[in-house]
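Notes continue from the previous slide.

Worked example: a multi-chain complex. Inputs as given:
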Amino acid sequence: GQQLNQSPQSMFIQEGEDVSMNCTSSSIFNTWLWYKQDPGEGPVLLIALYKAGELTSNGRLTAQFGITRKDSFLNISASIPSDVGIYFCAGRSIQGAQKLVFGQGTRLTINP
Amino acid sequence: DTEVTQTPKHLVMGMTNKKSLKCEQHMGHRAMYWYKQKAKKPPELMFVYSYEKLSINESVPSRFSPECPNSSLLNLHLHALQPEDSALYLCASSRDREGTNEKLFFGSGTQLSVL
């Protein structure tokens, strides 16, 4: 089935640093969603993207829908301790639009 | 209001028990989902209800039985589970399953342990 390649798998950074993670697919997607999940909680929607080239911000978070429609990235600027968690990309391809496909997640750890 | 409420938060059950997980949303969403999530893995789709009818069953074993009593409620009935069924069970909803750009909103999950 559809697979998303999310990288990096984990990141260890200092507080205040910027963070970048991305997802790529082998097929064209028409929706990209970015979620953050804290331990024992459900994923929380951060940003939704619907058009190629779209760049959307949510506070210190910025995400873009790649021009090729096969990738997306998420940037976090000036990281703070509460940014710790697992970030998932998710998307819908043209072929399998009924199902949301998830990346494997990026685990972010921040050293104060 | 983008809240999906799940109860209970935690559940411990034996392999011979019968229990139910409950999910509720009041956003007027017409699609509701059950996902299973193992530690350090992404959520895996189990079931999708669209307009209170089961539209997707991802080959889930029959010991998991979903039910959608109305457009706001979704249940997952559990019977004769196995220890490997221990996981975080997530409910989600979206405005409409048929749309290709629908956002999914997740509940906080039920952490299930099967002994």
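Summary box: Residues 67 and 75 of chain B are 5 Å apart (CA to CA). The two ends of chain B are 36 Å apart (CA to CA).
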